[in-house]
Amino acid sequence: MKKVFAGLALAMTVMCSALSFAEILIVANKDVPETALNVQEVQEIFLGKRVQWRDNSRIRFVTVGDSGIHGLFLKEYVKLSEADWKIYWKRMVFTGRGLPPATIATEAEVIAFVAETKGAVGYVSSDGLPEKSEKDSVKIIDVR
């Protein structure tokens, strides 16, 4: 009986984790060569450790100013709290190893920036994805 409950608990944890990932979508400029990334690659991009796409074009990553969406993104993909994220980027700037990403106020502005900027990547909530005509202006990256 204990094994059944342990199995159910594990299954529920996996399903809840999958739901959390479904709430945040990684969006990229149409010219970005990648169509899929794994979680580690997303983490490397948003920590400034991966700076080029596979075609050697520059990655321009942005974050959204909404703290709820940003916090969920950090937790699920970057594996940092908001406080640790700020400390990480202060350290990167102080040591001259990188500049923090631009923070864009709204999800609609993230979509617009990504659509207009070669090599750009950002994230939005599944609710923040615009109607079909604007949605077609960016590529949704499959995260495995």
Describe the structure.
Helices cover 48% and strands 19% of the residues. The protein has 144 residues and is of the alpha/beta class.
Properties at a glance:
about 140 residues, alpha/beta, globular
- By helix and strand content, what is the structural category? alpha/beta
Q: Give the SSE string.
A: HEEHEHHEHEHE
Number of DSSP strands? 6
Residue share in β-strands: 15-25%
Q: Approximately how much helix is present in the residues?
A: 40-55%
* Silhouette: globular
Low-confidence stretches: 4-22
Our count of helices gives 6
- The average pLDDT score comes to 86
Q: How is the biggest beta sheet arranged? A: 6 strands, mixed
Distance between the termini: 33 Å
Q: Walk across the major sheet and give the strand order.
A: 2-6-1-5-3-4
Rg value: 16 Å
Helix and strand layout, with pairings?
Layout: H1 2-23, E1 24-29, E2 36-37, H2 39-46, E3 60-64, H3 67-78, H4 82-94, E4 102-104, H5 107-116, E5 120-125, H6 132-135, E6 138-143
Parallel strand pairs: 2-6, 3-4, 3-5
Antiparallel strand pairs: 1-5, 1-6
What is the gist of this entry?
The chain is an alpha/beta fold. The protein has helices at residues 2-23, 39-46, 67-78, 82-94, 107-116, 132-135; strands spanning 24-29, 36-37, 60-64, 102-104, 120-125, 138-143.
